Amino acid sequence: MTSDPVRVASVGVGWWGARLADAATDEGLTIVSCFSPSDRRLEFAQKYGCRAAASWDDVLQDPEVEAILLATPHSTHADQVVDAAAAGKHVFVEKPLALSVADAKRAIAAADAARIVLQVGHNRRRQPGVRRLKELVDADALGTIHHVEANLSHPKGLTPRTGWRGKPTESPAGGMTGLGVHMVDNLIYLVGRPKRLAAFSKQIAALGTLDEATTVMLEFESGPLGFVGTTTVIPDVASTAAFGTKAAAWNDLDGERFYRQNVGEKQRTEEPIDTLDTVRDELAEFATCVRSGARPEVDGLAALEVVAVLEGIVESARDGGVVDVDAIRART
Fold first, then answer.
1. Positive or negative, the Cα torsion across 16, 22, 27, 32?
2. d(Cα 218, Cα 226) in Å, to the nearest integer?
3. I need a labelling partner for 274 at 20 to 30 A (CA). Which of 88, 249, 281, 294 fits?
4. What are the pLDDT digits (tens) for 11-20?
5. What is the pTM of this model?
6. pLDDT in tens, 31-47
């Protein structure tokens, strides 16, 4: 934690904006302003003891605000990062960075030109279980990795979403945009960039306007094949796993459990694992980077990889083909 708290504005004051604000106050950040187009900003300002800005421009022009926490609709992220960069404000933005590679590149270029910190909220790679998976993969403790897989699902879609999160334009491929991208980031963190992908995304029970189930098959440049799944109408699932020629390992129950199974063993064995408030951890890093000028772990370029995969998923599910991820990455 920094000794001189970074003065931030919370923009987007819904349930996740409040989650960020709760974590921020303990991790080297102090909330001095907030904004939302709705009157919810007034309640938020009272709760967190900050000013309720009258407009987005007021946030940008506020000399006290050093950085902005963005928990806003996905389609607005790129423009808001560009605006913040022009105003000299550092940005922590929730994932995904953008819905297209072109928009993500625009945001990254603006942040780099302004020399601001741009950090993206792919927090699940910070779970100690995912860190252990990475250590095992890098140390060859699992052998040659042949397959990786991840699933992040929950049943909130059993009640159709309202507001911007319930719009297909904001949540293409259903739960993949709000949930599955975490697991895409986890797998990229473990084994590197995807080369090709194919995806299916559809409604089955037709409970709302969004796709309810999305399945993605991936081929990684480093060799392994992989799978990412997400649905919004099944019991909670949160698991990341790697399978090699010596052993397999799982980070399960959203970081609460860790398992390993060696070749020749018929069942997996639980191993002790620490837990971590990953939101607090990423915001502590953001505060440190703002004060030190360091580059965060999940910077714009790291987040761009996930955006490329997301754009490829949407295209593959729509057109029914295999997508070359390099072709997506090259878009401007």
1. positive
2. 5
3. 294
4. 999 999 999 9
5. 0.96
6. 999 999 999 999 999 99
